Here is the input.
Amino acid sequence: MKHIIPDARLQMVATLVPKGARLADIGSDHAYLPVYLIQSGKITQALATDVNFGPIERAQKNIALAGLRDKIQTRRCDGLCGVEDFAPDTVSIAGMGGELIVSILDKSDYVRENAPLLILQPMTQIAFLRRYLAQKGYDIFSEHLVPDEHRIYQIIVCRYLALPSRKLGALAELAGEKTKDSPVLPELMAKLKRQYADIIAGKKIAGQSTTAEESILQEILAYETH
Here is the structure.
């Protein structure tokens, strides 16, 4: 039996999956997350999906090597369109761009009708994703920061509750409202500070307006002084 040891990013996602959850891992690729969760005894069944044949084949291979073909189903489907009969109470979507995650959620009646717990880990466009969640009635329960050698991963745990639409501030979209107690937040703020200073410098050279970026930079600097 092959045992999976996921990286820090997927380990954090795994800690956020409730014990005994019925998990659908969307865009599962190698199926590392569901294999790890079942091998660790946290869950007993899962569905690993992907829209392409290649990732499904890789998932099936790893599931077979782990001896878990009776516990993990695989399915080729577009996002959450096709998971209805499995009826997951928890959904993980990790390692995709924020815009793709938004597209998956927006097309899913299952998310709105059944309100599964969502564990989202975007690779890009985190502000776009948070803006969507705030505007479309999702409740964000917790947000987590996971440092890596070259980047800081952000993970959002939320659920669709048909809440009133609300507007987040620019910095809240970038860094979250519920990360203030994270020991990684100062590192994230330092990265954002460098990023926006570089954007402002580039725009000034090009003769473009920097009003929006200056406002965000001021929010970052205000955070650093507290």
